[in-house]
Structure formats: C-alpha cells, structure tokens
Amino acid sequence: QSALTQPRSVSGSPGQSVTISCTGTSRDVGAYNYVSWFQQLPGKAPKLMIYDVNKRPSGVPDRFSGSKSGNTASLTISGLQAEDEAEYFCCSYAGSYTFYVFGTATQVTVL
Amino acid sequence: QVQLQESGPGLVRPSETLSLTCTVSGGSITNHYLSWIRQPPGKGLEWIGNIYYTGDTNYSPSLMSRVTISAGTSKNQFSLKLSSVSAADTALYFCAREVRDYYDSRGRGQFSYFFDYWGQGALVTVSS
Predict the structure, then answer these.
(1) Who among A1, A34, A47 is closest to B112 (CB)?
(2) Which residues contact B32 (CB under 8 A, 6 or more apart)?
(3) Which of A3, A36, A98 sits opposite B114 (nearest CB)?
(4) CB proximity list for A51: less than 8 A, separation 6 or greater
(5) What is the pLDDT of residues B53-75, one digit of tens each?
(6) Are A67 and A54 in contact (CB under 8 A)?
C-alpha cells in the first residue's frame, strides 16, 4: 500500500497557525471520510487528535482542527503552543482489502 | 484510561518467527478490533492486520502469507506471529484498538474506522 504524503516539517512561532497536509488518492482519502490524525512524542504512544476528518476526541484542545478537500486532508493547529511541538501523522481507511494507510509524518517545530 | 502494552523478544534470528503479545488494560476489547501496526526505522507506518474479539481476522495483502494474529492466553491479550523474518521486518511494532462505531454528542450512532488507543511500541530487530 502507498503511504499518504505529508510535508517532512512545518514550523511556526507561538500563537501562529500551521497546517499539515496529507495527500492520498481516490482509493483512500478521497473515497472515505475516515481520516484521523495522531500526535506522537518520542518514546510515547501515538495520541488521537482528530477522527472522521474533523472530529475532536474529548480532551483535545479546540485549536486542533481537521478538514478535507478531494484527495487531501489537512490538520491545522491554531494558536501554536510550545507543547504542540511533536510529530504528527495522518491515517485513512482504504477499503476492506488494504484497510489502513498512514502518512509519512510531519515534525512540527515551535520556534 | 485504556492502555495497551506490547511485549516480546527484541531480537529474532533471520528465517525464524517473530512473536509479540499485546495486553489491554483499563478498558474493554469487546466490540473492538485490535490491530498490529509497524514502523521500520526511518520509514512510515504499515498496517499489519487485526482481530475482532470474536476471533475474526483481517491481514495486509503484502504480509498475509506470513502473519497470524490470534487471541492471547488471557482475555485481554492478543498476539502477533510473523514467520520467516528477514532484516526488512526490523521495526517498531505497535498494537492499537480500533473504533468502528460510536455515539456522537447527539446520541446518534455513527460508523467509522480509526484507532483510539495505541501502545508505546516494541522494537524488534532481526539479526543473526
């Protein structure tokens, strides 16, 4: 299965907004509204930040938001904070044969 | 708080079978699929397969011939076996719980596919 494409890194100053893209195909991101986003800190378990494209689990700050257009999903962090510095990756359902594909991961740096 | 913990040998010889166990605590696995996912060093994540609490399994087409996922010896455990391993199977192996349905804030049933909890991962190196 081919990975979803994400930028290797994005950065922003505290208070700014950053957006991470996640580009797939018409067989995964474009076909289903089942895109999720995860935050991963070194040595820690990935943490669910967004599911079903734009839904936030309880406890995730509302500065995290998700969207999708065509074959590309996006995660936006508004009002960037130092604690948001981490690696982020996306995941999409890809049908009952492949099931899941993942993004190539993006390092978010708070300047 | 649901927690998942992977365990097993960190070193496996080439051509042998990799075996890992995932223990789930703090929550139920009933009505959930449980997945294995791996990440080779410097590479992206790859879904390996999953098992439903009833024992139903699904596998990645690329690994299907070598993978077996089964229920563990304890009620909240499940295991991964990957046979005939090579250096290409060296990776950080994660277990994760899947969500297929949930109730939204308005109490309506929704259908979905996402992972709500993950383990920290277990590094397995294939080397002689």
Answers:
(1) A34
(2) B52, B53, B97, B98, B99, B100
(3) A36
(4) A34, A36, A37, A57, B99, B112, B114, B116
(5) 889 999 999 999 999 999 887 88
(6) yes
Question: Min CA distance, B127 vs chain A (Å)?
Answer: 23
Q: pLDDT digit string (tens) for A48-98?
A: 999 999 999 999 999 999 999 999 999 999 999 999 999 999 999 999 998
Interface of B with A in 5-64 (CB under 8 A): 35, 37, 44-47, 50, 58, 60-62
Provide the chain A residues 38-97 that lie in CB contact (below 8 A) with chain B: 38, 43-48, 51-52, 57, 89, 91, 93, 96-97
pLDDT profile of chain B (128 residues), mean per 10: 95 98 90 94 94 93 96 88 98 96 87 95 97
